[in-house]
Amino acid sequence: MPRGSVETGNNNTQNSTLWTMNAGFLRLKNVELGYNLPSSVCNKINIQKLRVYVSGNNLAILQDHLSKLGFDPETTNYWYYPQQRTFNVGFNLTF
């Protein structure tokens, strides 16, 4: 294992991959799904347009080694508040 030493002839200058790990990740950051009701349905209830939607932020992260450490790869500091996962549901209505 690499270690600091004051002795001569030690291996402190040797290349090592001991602490190297795969930091690749895939994050699903923002998703919004919406549906516009057909005009035939809207006309029956006396409105022009109706759109229903669902959205979410910070939905998923896929990572290998860093998840075992509880580390978010988009931060530069291990001690952080985790990003919050949020969901929204709503509609846009036009009379």
Report the C-alpha radius of gyration, rounded.
26 Å
Along the chain, the helix and strand elements come as: EHEHE
Largest sheet strand order: 1-2-3
Described by the principal axes of the CA atoms, the overall outline is rod-shaped
* Structural category: mainly beta
E-strand count? 3
Number of domains: 1
Walk me through what this model shows.
By secondary structure, the protein is mainly beta. It has one domain (25-94). Helices cover 11% and strands 38% of the residues. The protein is built from two helices and three strands. The chain has a three-stranded antiparallel β-sheet with strand order 1-2-3, with no helix packed on it.
Short characterization:
This protein has 95 residues and is mainly β. The protein has helices spanning 39-44, 66-69; strands spanning 25-36, 49-63, 86-94.
